[in-house]
């Protein structure tokens, strides 16, 4: 029978998973598939029939139901790569092939037929989602980012991946700004020059650790179309800026509400995803039974 071993974020700490990974390394068992992600290390091994519980676990993993972030998409590719690597290295059994083929089909079907992967569920992605909802053409927009930290680093990467060209980073420490800017390929302006930048900006994102307002009304000017996103606590952007005609101001509460709603949508879709998984388990077992009957008749 095909079986699996799993150590993951639900049954072990990060330290325990790291220790297990260093201990187990890459397995050399024949007819096995080794899956490693940031949250799990798993080994599928053996020959013969595929128990429903083994298929159910792998299908749930591939569909993103076992991920720390329910519905995340990256695991689909990670399962595909693990299967490809095992297929190249070992002579897998027909049952193991079918198990992983159906797992990948199930993951695609879950994401196609449900909204399990819909919507941003991180502050950085939610900010990008809001910008896109405002209809801003990122390839033409002038974008100002204030603050250097992991949040702004993630946002800069997302913006560049979406085709943003005119992106400028400002920070109290110019040295830190230049280091991050060189990594992602954006421009740098000094924090003292931010008013000149903001007077022409189409998008402003601020996320500093300052204990006071960083962007004031006089930095923006009147009659200026601007999407401003304040990701700081306490707030970086003067709330009065939101009253300027043409300015849309979002703060951390707006971002977190968007994230919360997206998470709720995903959670509501879990039951639909689970129903699809059960259908695919039945389909896989029928396929394996037909193959077994055919082999016996030969």
How many helix segments?
Answer: 10
Q: How does the helix and strand content classify structurally?
A: alpha/beta
Q: Let me know the largest β-sheet.
A: 6 strands, parallel
| CATH topology group of the largest domain | Beta Polymerase, domain 2
Strand content: 5-15%
Separation of the first and last Cα atoms: 22 Å
Radius of gyration equals: 25 Å
Strand order of the largest sheet: 6-5-4-7-8-9
Number of strands: 9
- What shape does the CA trace take? elongated
Question: What can you tell me about this protein's structure?
Answer:
This protein has helices spanning 14-24, 52-63, 74-89, 94-113, 123-133, 150-161, 174-184, 194-198, 217-220, 252-297, and strands spanning 3-8, 33-36, 40-45, 142-146, 166-171, 187-190, 203-206, 226-230, 247-250. By secondary structure, the protein is α/β, with parallel strands linked by helices. Strands 6-5-4-7-8-9 form a six-stranded parallel β-sheet. Helix 9 links the parallel strand 7 (203-206) and strand 8. Helix 2 (52-63) runs antiparallel to helix 10 and helix 5 packs across helix 6 (150-161). The longest helix has 46 residues, at 252-297. The model has no long low-confidence stretch (mean pLDDT 88).
